[in-house]
Hints:
2 domains; Rossmann fold; 393 residues; seven-stranded mixed β-sheet; elongated; 41% helix; alpha/beta; four-stranded mixed β-sheet; Nonspecific Lipid-transfer Protein, Chain A
Amino acid sequence: MLATLLPTLRELDLPLRLKLWDGKEMDIGPAPSVTLEIKDPNLVAQLAHPSLDLLGGAYVEGQIDLHGPLEEIIRIGDEITRALGDEGDSVPTREAHDKATDAEAISYHYDLSNAFYQLWLDRDMVYSCGYFETGTEDLDQAQQAKLRHLCRKLRLKPGDRLLDVGCGWGGLARFAAREYDADVFGITLSREQLKLARERVAAEGLEGQVRLELMDYRDLPQNEQFDKIVSVGMFEHVGHANLPLYCRQLASLVRPGGLVMNHGITSRYIDGRPVSHGAGEFIDRYVFPHGELPHVTEIGACISESGLEIVDVESLRLHYARTLQFWSERLEARLDEAQRMVPERALRIWRIYLAGCAYGFRRNWINLHQILASKPLPDGSHELPWSRADLYA
């Protein structure tokens, strides 16, 4: 099988070296910068028609090792799968997403280790796309700018009641309370996130303004009314089938005249099918179980059907590519520490995931949109200014 595969690989002229289970090495192209070490000979037959899911899974499970710059590893893997793989567009799934399933999926991803996430996130542990106002910012500056950008779009002001759906480690909740004097109620399904978030709220003396709870968005009390609602990096876990319910829930909890901000990853494809060449399948299997990405038109339709009016949409795709690149580089710089915090298999998942997603966002495989919506007043008016000038003042 290897004799058949090698000529095909050499036609691609990639800077790749193969190292076999018996120690033999062979250069596939000139000046190899990446070495693919095949440790399981049974994998060779599958490499005739590889996918990113196959290659990523083989690395995670220890069937192969990858040596060289991660960015080059991802690029070469993409080139190989495009040339040799079967595209076979997947039919998008529609999962039930009950409360127990969602809680288990969130715990799998976010309860890994707070210390591990601290290694490579910014100081406020904002685990979502940063905002690069000039493109020259470092990670901390970009995440502070993103929090400010969200609060400005929400026209947050002192005394506003803000609901933070999927509050994570509480970075946005604390920022909104500290910088805008808002009264914040945040919810998460991650026990580890909640523990650290509450510790940080207490450390900043914000207990009187920030309340965080372990709660599913479906259990939010319907007698509450908020001036503003923000959801960052959360609706990807809702699932296609539950998007209408999710949007109706937000619409019911914001007062007339209030604003709702949904910030999240969106699919390139209108039908929401996974990213091509197996990357989406890898993420679903190893990174975000049961995650589903709708196209911006699908979430937009659900927001509109809920009675909210979409007033602003902004794509931050390249901002997320840069954010993920920062995360990947920061993790790679601290691998020795990371190995002491999480199992080897988990570390392999995160290394491939961060570098692979940075590549995917750069290549327009997936997008990220901030969608701002208003709940119209009874006469159809709203409380927004006439222009966006205030955002950039």
